[in-house]
Amino acid sequence: MPKFTLIARQSDALPLAESMIEENEPYGDELGDYKRQAKTLVRQLSKAASPESMMTIDCGYFVYHYVLVEGVIYLTFTEKAYPRRLAFDFLDEISKEFRTVYGSQVERATRPYEFIRFDSFLQKTKKLYENTRTQRNVTKLQQELKDVQHIMTKNIHQVLERGEKLENISFLSSRLVSESKRYVKKTAYMHKLLTYRQYGSVLVVLLIVLVLFWLFN
């Protein structure tokens, strides 16, 4: 079943809403770390030039599934054994509801978790997808409504490594700009120093001549 869900704006990775981790969750201690990792993944997606619109990210016993719809990332976290079709049906259901309720407000959002009230819908919908053996979910699995075979799957290390490379490129670019500014300042200083050396002695001689002229006249 979906363990937790995160909704964020793609342009700047601003978290808009998320589901709370239940107190009786057997993986409760670990899920805090996975939720932090989910936010890192969202930041990488916000930096990517053209991210996949749908993807499964494998991290061992668990997986992340996400869809990108109209500038909003909907990401959920499940056990690897949980059917992918149900995971993406869950994301499809919450994305439609979120767009209906908050779609026009996304661009104007300024605070993290501005739509945290959406958690009530997330929790209600999550319960519908908990048991894969309910008639509702069995019917979903039997229907050929969504082909999930074509959805790309990547390893968590691949995605994070790509993110690290992007961060390194950003760091190197910032450093290059900083070094260029230092070079310009240093060049200007050296030019002034050269000018002083070139004309300084002439000015000193002229100053001495003027002083002598003033003393003896």
TrEMBL record:
Q: What is its main location?
A: endoplasmic reticulum
Q: Which residues cross the membrane?
A: 199-216
Q: Cross-referenced Pfam families, in alphabetical order?
A: Longin (PF13774), Synaptobrevin (PF00957)
Answer whether the UniProt record assigns the keyword Hydrolase to this protein.
no
Entries under InterPro entries matching the protein? Longin-like_dom_sf, Longin_dom, Sec22, V_SNARE_CC
Its keywords, alphabetically, are:
Coiled coil, Endoplasmic reticulum, Golgi apparatus, Membrane, Protein transport, Transmembrane, Transmembrane helix, Transport
Instruction: Give the record's membrane topology.
Output: Single-pass type IV membrane protein
The record's section on CDD domains has: Longin
Q: What compartments host this protein?
A: Endoplasmic reticulum membrane; Golgi apparatus membrane
Every copy of the V-SNARE coiled-coil homology domain together lies at 137-197
- Entry's Gene Ontology cellular component terms: endoplasmic reticulum membrane; Golgi membrane
Q: What is this protein called?
A: Vesicle transport protein
Q: Name one GO biological process term.
A: endoplasmic reticulum to Golgi vesicle-mediated transport
Query: What organism does the UniProt record list as the source?
Result: Galdieria yellowstonensis
Q: Which residues form the Longin domain?
A: 6-122
Molecular functions per Gene Ontology: SNAP receptor activity
Q: Which family does it belong to?
A: Belongs to the synaptobrevin family.
